[in-house]
Amino acid sequence: MTDRLNDIYPGKLREHYENPRNYRMLEGETGHASAVNPICGDEITVYLRGNREKVSEVTFQGHLCAVSLASASLMSEALLNRTPQEFAIISRDFVAMMSGSDSIALGDLDALRSIRKYRVRIRCALLPWEALREACRALALIGFGQDRCGK
């Protein structure tokens, strides 16, 4: 049983769901948005603080399974102090990786690659990124990337 859990939740993934980073509401955010997975009931709100040049803070909160929680935690660290162009590239590449691309390397986010074997869990890994995309659109209203936050 332990070997199977290690296969599903490798070290970095387990580290982030046992001790999530940036799990909190962000007061004074410049953008936020929520997403829900109606199949499992996961709910997340992503908060961003930024200006036209970069996002200085990414936080989140919600009711999340281990995969969504780890994905949100990893995402919040990967996107810290990034430009609009970097947001768009990382977001696009993450979705491609979760869709099966093996030619993409995303550092710590690669820990979520193991989830692809469990198709229903892919949606869990992508949920924080859906909320991020919507929160980023809110930032576009202040000129952040002019809506380059990913499709």
How would you describe the overall organization of this protein?
Helices cover 43% and strands 17% of the residues. It has 151 residues and is an alpha+beta fold. The protein has five helices and three strands.
User: Quaternary arrangement of the chains shown?
Assistant: single chain
- Cα end-to-end separation: 38 Å
Q: Quick one: overall form?
A: globular
**Count of runs of 4 or more consecutive helical residues:** 5
The helix/strand class is: alpha+beta
Q: Rg, please?
A: 15 Å
The count of strands amounts to 3
Strand order of the largest sheet: 1-2-3
Number of domains: 1
CATH architecture term: Alpha-Beta Complex
**Low-confidence segments:** none
Question: Largest sheet at a glance?
Answer: 3 strands, antiparallel
Identify the CATH class. Alpha Beta
Mean pLDDT: 87
The arrangement of helices and strands along the chain is HHEEEHHH
Strand content: 15-25%
What is the third-level CATH name, the topology? Answer: Sufe protein. Chain: A
Helicity, in percent? 40-55%
Keywords:
151 residues, alpha+beta, Sufe protein. Chain: A, three-stranded antiparallel β-sheet, 17% strand, globular
Would you spell out the secondary-structure blueprint of this structure?
Elements: H1 2-8, H2 11-18, E1 31-37, E2 42-50, E3 55-63, H3 66-78, H4 84-98, H5 119-140
Helix pairs in contact: 2-3, 3-5
